[in-house]
Amino acid sequence: MELKRAERKIEAHQEGAVIGEITYSDTNNGMWIIDHTYVDPAHRNQQIGEQLVAEIVNWAREVNVKLLPLCPFAKKEFEHQSDYQDVQANT
């Protein structure tokens, strides 16, 4: 599997097909709102969603933005991964 960054999203690719994605809205004030995480049903339970969240966290660190996880899956990941707190927006 390969993760590819695109405009306002990260896609998970496998054998040339998109099998998952995480999308965000840019507030243009140093914060991205994670609004959706999707993994194709045939590829679920393979930690793809978790990898997508980890990749957007890494990207946020690289570009120095905060993340507000409104997507239920991403929100759950932030609650379980204490090392994401440095990029979590204060709400």
UniProtKB/TrEMBL annotation:
It holds the Pfam family Acetyltransf_CG. The keyword Transferase applies. It comes from the Bacteria. Residues 1-91, 2-89 form the N-acetyltransferase domain. Keywords: Transferase. GO terms for molecular function: acyltransferase activity, transferring groups other than amino-acyl groups. The lineage of its organism: Bacteria, Bacillati, Bacillota, Bacilli, Bacillales. This is GNAT family N-acetyltransferase. It comes from Exiguobacterium oxidotolerans. InterPro entries: Acyl_CoA_acyltransferase, GNAT_dom, GNAT_YJDJ.
